[in-house]
Amino acid sequence: MYTRLNQAQPYALALFRIVVGLLFACHGAASLFGILGGAMGGGSIPAGTWPGWYAAVIQLVGGGLVALGLGTRIAAFVSSGSMAYAYFKVHQPEALFPLENGGEPSAVYCWAFLLLVFTGPGALALDRLFTSRTTARSDQDRAAEPSSPVAA
């Protein structure tokens, strides 16, 4: 049983990454464009307002990159930091626990993205497509180089 679970792990991680990234991107799209219910009950956040508009841009771009598996670790790191900032600056001053201060989504996204920083994108990521090409090219380059004698 554990063997099958271990074989499925990269795909389960990819599914986790895609779902979390898409949900996060939806938050950004709602805030920036007023779609999917809009920001704070409707409408959009005015461009350039601190910190809401910048957070929404990070949500949209970071969530999209994470969902695609492109620059996953960096996008997840920035997204995690954004959610940590949101929790400690917006939610935590209201009350100590996330259940009391409405900061559960911020806390969960923060930890989910931090997990992706350390685990990587899993299977089905665009990162792997570019990495495999680069690795194959560098292997071909090394094979084509004439071997030089080692100085004694």
Describe the structure.
The radius of gyration is 20 Å and the shape is globular. The chain starts with a helix and ends in an 8-residue tail after the last helix. The mean pLDDT is 87. The protein has six helices and no strands. Helix 1 packs across helix 5 and helix 3 runs antiparallel to helix 5. The protein is mostly helical.
How can the largest sheet be summarized?
none
Mean pLDDT: 87
Number of helices: 6
SSE string, helices as H and strands as E: HHHHHH
Low-confidence stretches at least 5 residues in length (pLDDT < 50)? none
The whole-angstrom Rg is 20 Å
Shape by Cα distribution: globular
The first-to-last residue Cα distance is 54 Å
Amount of helix: over 70%
Strand segment tally: 0
Structural class, judged by helices and strands?
Answer: mainly alpha
Strand content: under 5%
What tags apply to this protein structure?
single chain, 152 residues, mainly alpha, 71% helix, 0% strand, globular
Give the helix/strand layout.
Blueprint: H1 2-33, H2 52-68, H3 72-91, H4 98-101, H5 104-119, H6 126-144
Helix pairs in contact: 1-2, 1-5, 2-3, 3-5
